[in-house]
Amino acid sequence: MRRALDLLYDGAAWVAALAMIGVLLMVLLSILGRQLGFHVPGTDAYAGYSMAAAGFLALAHTLKHNEHIRVTLLLGRLKGKAKHALEMWALTAAVLLAALFAFYSVRLAWQSHLLNDISTGNDATRLWIPQLTMAVGTVVLLIAFIDEWWLELTGRRVTAEPEEALHNE
Hints:
The chain is mostly helical. It has helices spanning 2-36, 43-57, 59-64, 80-115, 128-153, 163-168. The longest helix is centred in the middle third of the chain and has 36 residues, at 80-115.
């Protein structure tokens, strides 16, 4: 199970990296079009869709590598059961918030699909397609938070403290 979850997080991160390449390609195409006198409709919109995809799909991988911003002023001073209780409280809140975020993201994409909602730009993209990356990213983030919650509950969660946090306190 651990291997499958890590593969899921890494796979989402790779797709996020491809989306960043998509941003680059759209920007370069737009610049090239201006320089050579041609126009490709929708490059701005597709760059935005790719940027959103990159951000959402990278959330779980970032969480699992302890790269999300955490306020550890109180947590760093606690030990034992008190630290575990605060971690469980924070992770429970995170799971609940991620579940809401995932639910409404999936619902938005589904409703856009049902209503055949299209973008207002001249590219007329079916909006459920870029919204799907947000939905997938938030669902994978929810899975990652549940994973962290379970690891903390069973005492197997490992959190590496970044050195810079130690130097700043």
